[in-house]
Amino acid sequence: MGCGISSSMKDKKSEKALKAALVIQNWYRGHSAQLKTRQRYALTIFQSIEYADEQGQLELSNFFSFMLENYTRVLEEDPELVTHLSDSNIQDKDRQDYWVLIDVPDSYCGPRLQFPLTFTDIDLLIEAFKQQQILHAYYVLEVLFETKKLLQQMPNFTHIKTSPSKEITICGDLHGKLDDLFLIYHKNGLPSVSNPYVFNGDFVDRGKNSMEILMILFVSFLVYPSDLHLNRGNHEDFMMNMRYGFTNEVLHKYKLHGKKILQVLEDIYTWLPIGTIIDNEILVIHGGISESTDLNLLHRIERNKLKSVLMPPIPIDGDHATEKGNKVGTTITARGIRTNGSLSEQLTKHEWEQVIDILWSDPRGKRGCYPNTGRGGGCYFGPDITSKILNKYQLKMLIRSHECKPEGYEICHDGKVITVFSASNYYEEGSNRGAYIRVSSGSPPRFFQYQVTRATCFRPLYQRVNAVESRAIRMLKERMISQKTDLIRVFQLQDSSKSGKLSVGQWAFSMENILGLNLPWRSLSSHLVTTDKDGNVDYMSSFQDIHIQKPVKEVQSTLIETVYRYRSDLQIIFNVIDANHSGLISMEEFRSIWKLFKSHYRVCVDDSQLDELTERMDLNKDGSIDFNEFLKAFYVVHKFDKLSKSDTKVL
């Protein structure tokens, strides 16, 4: 009997332990699910702001066309601006001039490449870049010219064959994240005849090592031209580079020869293939497709005519590129004004639209094909469009990149569309994993995930999510403060009782209406505003811990917000105008450009206020302002930083 009691007690203890384990397990699962939800919300914020910025970039491209059409004195007073905005390709005949001017001193300690390049040079570059060495401009330009020569021989779509014993690796966006490329090469092996790769665009911008990534990829391409394949992405574009960092990176690393490097790169972009077809079954393109995608046409177009994917060819009279279709004259093209040009020198509008769809489009679950309102370029395409295009060209699958995914890849449209994104920690440390895919004939794709870890590898999950979430909220508040005046106006219109409060629904509607960001505002309200016991929002609390620093106190808030909101656009415009890189812009020139900018963007700002501001920023009263310094005077101050020191230090 005693044994029976003992056994019963043991059973009860085991039952209690099991219940306790289940409670802990359920709590952990619920806690993990909450953290994942918060992480998804943070990624949604990052992505919405990123796509809104891309819309701004497209609008800026339209402004350049508008400026060239309306800046009546540009031809007479600033011919250098016209030259800078018009096509300025570096021809092979200029190649020798570069080499005459560039000398590699004996004191240079970086990698020295030996042409023709071999596998050893790939390894040499990787080891040098791991030591944060800079490749000399002499070798950079030589690599670029050799790459261009080889790319000119490539078709628009590269056709590749695999076998059960020979897989090919497909990598998505890298965006200057050199450590991700190092990790891919470490895990998956260096490119070789037996280990081919496709890099599916967006090698540059955002990250700080875009030049190093380009050099490794281009040298690998020169060593293995039949086994390393490069597709063009929407960031292989000089206009995108000016906003998203690559232009500044090159000019910073190569102060003497940076401008020449950028000019050659601009030409190389146009020669990058726009897609890869594997085993006549898998289409690999950067963005996506539309209902009108014509692969036969895309195989035939002269891709090098597309100087910028952001600016369509615009004939000077709106209908014809010249007074007569085949007559030589002056045209406004994708880059600006070209003299003595002809219609044959640019893509047709239909051809341009075909390439835009390839580089900018995104898949969605909704059927049909409709405008990509998130990015402002390309389209959203549904599963029916995928089936239609794949069936039309006897293809089985579309592999694309272009969108950051939490796990580094995503499968949609009944397994027919795969997104692969190879830049881990894209928005913030810990925000997402990277991935690459291996495919071979007769086998399903294999996915490999990774995440470059530094400080975050020692942090628990909740701290990593807190860091990502705090950064996302910070960016969102900066977006809000840039349109404070418009938000307050809408808040007050809805606040009929003048109580200073709105319902959460009214507040959320106002936020989406003014900011144009499709976000879960109700869920985010707890991070952005204070609410009373009845759940009503104190709408002025939206701005309580953040403001824009004013270089001149007397200037109206509307002007400050406008300059801050468009600071990236204005900086790009200034850098284009400042052809000699003097860092200065005349007051008169700035006023002329501002009037056009204000007209095109429909900005309501009192010119006298702007005049007062620029006068005060002309510190030495010489009639010029340092415009980059001018823009730096407008920055956001966060009174209460949500990211505590305990969240940022390495544990």
Automatic annotation (TrEMBL):
Keyword annotations of the record: Calcium, Hydrolase, Magnesium, Manganese, Metal-binding, Protein phosphatase, Repeat
Catalyzed reaction equations: O-phospho-L-threonyl-[protein] + H2O = L-threonyl-[protein] + phosphate; O-phospho-L-seryl-[protein] + H2O = L-seryl-[protein] + phosphate
Domain EF-hand: start-end pairs: 565-600, 605-640
Xref: Pfam families: EF-hand_7, Metallophos, PPP5
SMART domains (alphabetical): EFh, PP2Ac
EC number assigned by the record: 3.1.3.16
Signal peptide stretch: none
Biological processes annotated in GO: detection of stimulus involved in sensory perception
Molecular function, one GO term: protein serine/threonine phosphatase activity
PROSITE patterns xref list: EF_HAND_1 (PS00018), EF_HAND_2 (PS50222), IQ (PS50096), SER_THR_PHOSPHATASE (PS00125)
InterPro entries: Calcineurin-like_PHP (IPR004843), EF-hand-dom_pair (IPR011992), EF_Hand_1_Ca_BS (IPR018247), EF_hand_dom (IPR002048), Metallo-depent_PP-like (IPR029052), PPP_dom (IPR013235), PPP_phosphatase (IPR051134), Ser/Thr-Pase_EF-hand_contain (IPR012008)
Family: Belongs to the PPP phosphatase family.
Protein name in UniProt: Serine/threonine-protein phosphatase with EF-hands
UniProt source species: Phocoena sinus (Vaquita)
